[in-house]
Amino acid sequence: MSSRVFAHLRVVLVALALSAAGLVLPPNVVFAATPQEQQVAQVLFEDARALMDRKQYAEACPKLVESQRIDPGGGTLLNLAICYEKLGKLSTAKSTYEDAFAVAVRDSRADRQQIARARLAALEPLVPRLAIVVAAGSNLALLEIRLDGRVIDRGAWGATTFVDPGPHLVEATAPARATWSMTVAIAARQKKNVEVPVLTALARLPEANEGGLRAAAASGLHALTADDGANANANANANANESAGAELGEGGAGTEATRASNARTRRLAGARPFSRPNPVHYTALSLAVVGGLTSIVTGAMALSAHNDASRGCSAARNDCREPSEQAGGRGQTLAWVSTISLAVAAVATLTLFFSPSRTQPDSLSKSFAEPFALSARR
Q1: Residue 97 class from Cβ within 10 Å (0-12 exposed, 13-18 middle, 19+ buried)?
Q2: Helices (H), 31-109
Q3: Where in the chain is the domain with CATH 1.25.40.10?
Q4: In a 3-state reduction of DSSP, which class is residue 192?
Q5: Computed over its alpha carbons, how large is the radius of gyration of the chain?
Q6: How far is 220 from 86, CA to CA, in rounded Å?
Q7: 129-134 and 191-196: which strand pairing?
Q8: Do the bridges between strand 319-320 and strand 313-314 make them parallel or antiparallel, or are there none, so unpaired?
């Protein structure tokens, strides 16, 4: 096939890909929340704002997180950043302000951009910084470093990391080595380095002793009696009753308001779990439609070009005029495009049968500016 044919083929395939992307990418079409989800997100947002007015930030922040998960909005994100800052989670607030600023730029909200920029400038010197340093002698091949349970990539070892004020657990583990851990307390404005020492090698027990220890451990596990289980259950029940009593005794007006808002949210949410459109399903749907239409159109064009070429060729002389040769080349290119488009549409149609249309996502983990900038979710 000539280079001209390949050029035509590339152009058509790129157009096909761009057409499919145009149907899939707009988030306001594919990932739009349902009216019920929007209503619940609004209720959560309003409840959180009321809690923030009462300085109950520990209860307000989770509601804003859930509202943002159900139906994302720039106003919700900015209020969440303020809530984190008031709660003392300075690093979390900083990253949330950065996200809110990006959304405000996208939405052309100059008021929210100004708020986020001002708060970021004020927070920058306050956020604690922590660096985990691994000495050359400690750098084992399979060494793993964790900060508060999160694995730190090797490329980030020694780099300064923003953290929230308070205690942080640093752990180091490696095969055949004793685990090392250290709790680091850090306050606002502080910068600390934590050096990971050389992990102690574990001594391997002789085979006989190792077998004896395993047998002893197994017998110890089986030695638990029914009384032990009953005592454990009794203690658990006692703790639960104590917690319930504390909640009833210390709730006050704030707790009653929280219960009322939670009940209101549950009534609106109902028993149906929230779901999101499955991007795989709708991508396949878009490719099936675009691929099918492209295959039909290019197939018809290929047939027309073939007819044009046939009329300008003489079977007796076995030659063709130049326009007929061009029509024949064009028809061959269009035939390839039609075949490829049909194959894409067939694969996409098959994918539709194995992918659900909606998926169930996992649950996630007083204002500084004008009320209008913060009083709306979007």
Answers
A1: buried
A2: 35-53, 57-70, 74-87, 90-106
A3: 32-126+362-374
A4: strand
A5: 32
A6: 50
A7: parallel
A8: antiparallel
CATH architecture of 129-196: Sandwich (2.60)
The helix (run of H) or strand (run of E) holding residue 306 is helix 279-311
Burial profile 108-135: b = 16 or more Cβ within 10 angstroms, e = fewer: ebeebbebbeebbeebeebbbbbebebe
Short-list 156, 150, 114, CA closest to 133: 156
CA–CA separation, 118 and 116 (whole Å): 5
Q: What is the pLDDT of residue 25?
A: 44
Residue in 32, 15, 34 with CA at minimum distance from that of residue 282 = 32
Q: What is residue 346's three-state secondary structure?
A: helix
For residue 314, count other CB atoms closer than 10 A to its CB: 10
**CATH 2.60.40 occupies which residues in the chain?**
129-196
As a whole number, the mean pLDDT across the chain is 76
Judge whether 172 and 143 are in contact, CB under 8 Å.
yes
Q: Identify the pLDDT of residue 371.
A: 56
Q: What percent of the residues of the chain are helix, what percent strand, and what percent coil, each to the nearest 5?
A: 65, 10, 25
Q: What is the pLDDT of residues 121-180, one digit of tens each?
A: 999 999 999 999 998 888 888 899 999 999 999 999 999 999 999 999 999 999 999 999
64: left (phi over 0), alpha (psi -120 to 50) or beta: alpha
DSSP 87-153: HT-HHHHHHHHHHHHHHHHHTT-HHHHHHHHHHHHHHTTTS-EEEEEE-GGG--TT-EEEETTEEEP
Q: How far is the C-alpha of 45 from the C-alpha of 314, rounded, in Å?
A: 77
> Which residues contact residue 187 at a Cβ distance below 8 angstroms, ignoring those fewer than 6 apart?
128, 165
Whole-angstrom distance, CA of residue 309 vs CA of residue 321 = 9
| Total residues belonging to the chain | 378
Span 32-126+362-374: which CATH code? 1.25.40.10
* Model pLDDT, residue 112: 96
Q: Are 335 and 302 in contact (CB under 8 A)?
A: yes
Q: Is the pLDDT of residue 209 over 70?
A: no
Tokens at 365, concatenated: 């983990």
